[in-house]
Amino acid sequence: MPEQFLYEKLDSISGFGLLAKEMPKGMTLNLNPRFELRSYQIEAFARFFHCHQKDFPGKVLPLHLLFNMATGSGKTLIMAGLILYLYEKGYRNFLFFVNSTNIIQKTRDNFLNPQSSKFLFVPDIVIGNQHVRVTPVENFEAVNPRDINICFTTIQKLHTDLTTEKENAITFEDFRKHKVVLIADEAHHLNTKTRSDQELFESWENTVELIFGQNTANLLLEFTATHDFEDAGMVDKYRNKVVTRYDLQQYRNDRFSKDVMIVQSDFDLNERILQALVLSQYKQEVAAKHRINLKPVVLLKAQRTIAQSHENKENFHKLIDGLTVKDIARVRKSDVPAIQRAFQFFQDNGITDGQLVARLKREFQAEFCLSVNEEGEKERYQMLLNSLEDRNNRIRAIFAVQKLNEGWDVLNLFDIVRCYETRDAKAGKPGSTTVSEAQLIGRGARYFPFVTPGSNDRFRRKYDGDVAHELRVLEELHYHSINDHRYIQEIRTALVAQGIMAEETVERPMRLKDSFKKTPFFKFGAIYTNARITNDYRQVKSLADMGVSKSNYVHTIATGHGGQSAILAEKEAKAVVAEEN
Questions:
Q1: 386 pLDDT band (50/70/90 cuts)?
Q2: Residue 60 counted as domain residue
């Protein structure tokens, strides 16, 4: 039997109730209360605290741990919580590094900008009765020892700064003199040497290992959604380092993601795009009907080049500008169930084809469309991408090639249109393009949180058992493709491999027998269901807020003094008999 991974040993400890789950106040009180900690996040924190504080077989200093957590599971929130916890343990210097400048900009906003809707801390951090600032730094010389000092960099820039003398750049001495927490996001990009088994002295992985080993008090915390558990070199390196494994399949099974639906049709590209727009508007109308603030976004993906994406954008604007009720009538002929439900909803709610055309023209006009391919527009589009859920962000359509496959945090992406028809499968396996498409779908599968009168659990799917419910469409991501059965099988294979889609999903219509419909049970029977209502104490600041008006109370303290007497009592048992019809 192969030796267990660290996370498997921790599974056993947690299963026996031996893992302390109480979260430190210095952490919970300083995280943004908008981001309620979920059970698997609390579990991840508890595992780190256990490994940081206690010895375990295979523990080596400096301590190196990896969090394998699904896209959308809140890895950045885990990072923020660990920064607060480690500050209390005496750490002041943090190095955040990743392979992409886009992710750097997004993370800076999440850590440093209190005006951002995704800011992870409270505006005024207080630890140990002291106000603490989060400060971006270039290196760790002459930093404020009371601040949380974070150096944001890419792994490429870090490697260059360390191997080339440059003013104000970070140096090996920074990691030798100061104890530093190294936080690696999208960490699967770092292991070039381990996978290839080549001793590349100047590889990025080697750079990280060199700075990490400068001080035994340093910490290296890696985060990735796609850790390789098959490669022998990776297994050997990370056996005692993977502290938690919460993959996409478990994330989906726990109902924290949207359900992914593949919409395949024989329509041409313009009609497939229009299908997506109809579905997008349907989702917005359903949300508005139920007083849910939602602006669903459509992504139009080009295959390889920016020129292809520009062409897609030009064609899109021509489509919208020339849109008529005749175009809507063609899409109405679709036999896709979601499209049929959309038009039935429009009919039931008095939305005519003419009104639908007017709304699509208004919602998808050029100023509400965003291309994320131009480097010169990076600062503007990065800000818009990071705030797509905000009320004042009107973007409804996004045009991209590959830039959004990693590091994009979005909850209101509900439709993806594949604007090409080619395949790149090899030896019956999905090609690299299909795998990247599956990664993009994984980003869009993040659940858009909302509450209903029947459920206060805003972060989980509510209608797995009632797929005909009107609100079910707000729990679905639609991926629009041509009706090519080979490609559909390939994308399904890639989605199943990543855990985004169930391996076998079969829809079967269930019809009641006419004889059963005639029975009194069907005609007059009632079904009662329980509703779980969460008590919200966030506004409670004193007993008066809970309706307690009396200020003085008398309490009697028990002394243990008592006596014994006999009493004859008769107990009556009541039986409830359920009849089956």
A1: confident
A2: yes
Task: State CA 38 to chain mean position distance.
Answer: 12
From 49, 116, 112, select the one nearest 78 (Cα to Cα): 49
Which domain does 429 fall in, by range? 259-498
342 assigned to some structural domain: yes
pLDDT digits (tens, 9 = 90+) for 28-41: 999 999 999 999 99
| Main-chain phi, psi angles of 136, to 5 degrees | -75, 135
What does the pLDDT look like over 349-370, one tens digit per residue?
999 999 999 999 999 999 999 9
Report if residue 449 sits inside a domain. yes
Please provide the DSSP assignment of 449-508 as one string.
Answer: ---BTTB--TTS---TT-TTSGGGGGGEEEEEEE--HHHHHHHHHHHHHHTSS-S-----
- Give the residue carrying structure tokens 């005024």: 124
- In the predicted structure, residue 61 carries a pLDDT above the cut 50: yes
Residues 213 and 347 placed together within one structural domain of the fold? no
Residue 517 in this model has a pLDDT that exceeds 80: yes
Structure tokens at 71: 């896209």
- Classify residue 149 as exposed, middle or buried by CB count within 10 Å of its CB (0-12, 13-18, 19+): buried
41 and 88 co-located in one domain: yes
* 3-state class (DSSP) for residue 442: helix
Query: Is there a single domain that holds both residue 238 and residue 263?
Result: no
DSSP 206-273: HHHHHHHTT-TT-EEEEEES---SSSHHHHHHHTTTEEEEE-HHHHHHTT-BPEEEEEEES--HHHHH
> For residue 492, how many other CB atoms are within 10 A of its CB?
18
* Domain-terminating residue out of 498, 513, 540: 498
The pLDDT assigned to 547 comes to: 66
Residue 557 is assigned to a structural domain of this protein: no
Kindly provide the residue ranges of all beta strands, DSSP E only, lying in 338-441, ordered along the sequence. 369-371, 397-400, 413-418
Q: Are residues 207 and 157 in the same domain?
A: yes
Domain count for the chain? 2
The full DSSP string for 299-367 is EEE-SS-HHHHHHHHHHHHHHHHT--HHHHHHHHT---HHHHHHHHHHHHTT--HHHHHHHHHHHTSGG
pTM over 0.85: no
Give the distance from CA 451 to its chain's centroid.
18
| 156 and 83 housed in the same domain | yes
pLDDT at 485 over 90: no
Residue 540 confidence (pLDDT): 65
412: exposed, middle or buried (Cβ count in 10 Å: 0-12, 13-18, 19+): buried
